[in-house]
Amino acid sequence: MRLTSLLAVLAVLGGFLGCSTGAVADGKPPAVPDKGYLIQAGDLLQVTVWKEPDLTGEALVRSDGGLSFPLVGDVMAAGKSVDALREEFTNRLKGFIPDPVVTIATKQIGGNQIFVIGRVQRPGGYPFVKPLDVMEALSLAGGGTPYASLNQIVILRRENTQQRAIRFHYARVASGKDLAENILLQSGDTVVVP
Asked: Are strands 113-118 and 190-193 parallel, antiparallel or unpaired?
């Protein structure tokens, strides 16, 4: 196969896979955008506006996902990255302050939390910043007790107003036979170990 034909095939495949031919031709995998931490209700943020001591303070993300801040007003924060929220604050402050320099940091995480209950060593809620899968959640909870039915674990997930149950078979995942069951958990998920 000639090089031009190979590049044409890669271009077609790149279009299907959503990557550029440059990434494939360079031998580097396409970059996957990292959303980073998404702000959730219950998070406490530290907001600093450079050279504006009256605009420095903490902001609690309310249960409705919004927060209020002087001169910025009411902002929907839940579901946004810290960078996106900083950009929104900066744009809103431009009407009051020339070239505002805004810094936002997550001071306390109160929103992204999963729960592990049942026959585990340390049942309870576990906050998380990076994506967390079922095996990692079980590890945080200290693993199952001697009487745990690890092959009958259920993840309870609320989607809109409906709750659904997702089965998890520990032995298949631990042996590498069904790694697809080791799903990434979402905020509010409950891992039930009978």
From this structure: parallel
- C-alpha 129/C-alpha 114 separation (Å) is 11
The CA–CA distances, whole Å, from 26 to 18, 30, 90 equal: 16, 10, 38
Of 109, 150, 144, 149, give the one whose Cα is nearest residue 130: 109
E strand residue ranges, 66-147? 66-69, 73-76, 102-108, 113-118, 124-127
pTM of structure:
0.59
**Distance from C-alpha of 94 to C-alpha of 101, rounded to nearest angstrom:** 10
Please spell the DSSP secondary structure of 150-192, one letter per residue: GGGEEEEEEETTEEEEEEE-HHHHHTTS-GGGSPBP-TT-EEE
pLDDT digits (tens, 9 = 90+) for 102-139: 999 988 887 788 999 999 999 999 988 788 999 999 99
